[in-house]
């Protein structure tokens, strides 16, 4: 666990207004190897002002889910299911209408700003492009907006930075520029896709604190994608754990950590180094590798790596079910972890 990322900050109390409703969303890519189901039947609801964490190993489908929500998945992708944003179904919208949502309504902060930013375009043009197109601002108004945003995200000497190119900025400053671009049109939903992974832990905490402060000021909804459960622990209202494109477990974050039910979630938590462990304690690594999307597995996709798997796990896909009647803690496991969060003996 990245110790500095587990902040004492408390997530904002979620509002009750529904902003994003995702129902049975799937993303299938057509490749030379055949059709690959990268996202498989994902459903969730996000409310205004709420923060949803999406966790899982590399290859679990987190990033493709983020891109599917915004319809910026690869051209070969086929999206099915439903994505309703503020009451409007997005999957059926013409491209021109959908483009009006990207920026003013939904924005994405990418994992690597060095590849996401255009290396031959000054910072000013990259920030002002959205406000000029979507908000109708003049060049002067857009520049003033860019200066305001750079100050908001804590970049020193903002007027100087506007004239610079991405390679002239540090990694932390480039990520702050990415956040400024994402916020330029005042979106209602911000998706941070591994937005701090490439940063050192001190800068990582600064960026996470900044996102949380801006969210509170603007009452944005945030989807925070990370492979680091420590990043999500103190900063999200709910956490959804994905594996092989499917949702394994979803619950209020405190409930998920305190009363883990899925074997995969428990395995992720067991793999995190703890400050209270004796020195030289061996970590409990998860054996094996994530599933090949081209492989057809009849049962639970985690079964080949799960120490608790039984025959039923290999032959039938476990449905998402509530931990208790009426609970919003859902898990899909035939051999759930004990209610106290420990593995069965």
UniProtKB/TrEMBL annotation:
One GO cellular-component annotation of the UniProt record comes to: plasma membrane
- InterPro entries attached here? AAA+_ATPase, ABC_Ni/Peptide_Import, ABC_transporter-like_ATP-bd, ABC_transporter-like_CS, Oligopep_ABC_C, P-loop_NTPase
One GO BP annotation of this record: peptide transport
Q: List the Pfam families.
A: ABC_tran (PF00005), oligo_HPY (PF08352)
Residue ranges of every copy of the ABC transporter domain listed in the record: 20-269
> Where in the cell is the protein located?
Cell membrane
- Keywords tagged on the record: ATP-binding, Cell membrane, Membrane, Nucleotide-binding, Transport
Mainly resides where? membrane
Membrane topology, as annotated, equals: Peripheral membrane protein
Under Gene Ontology molecular function, one entry of this record is: ATP hydrolysis activity
Q: What is the protein named? A: Dipeptide/oligopeptide/nickel ABC transporter ATP-binding protein
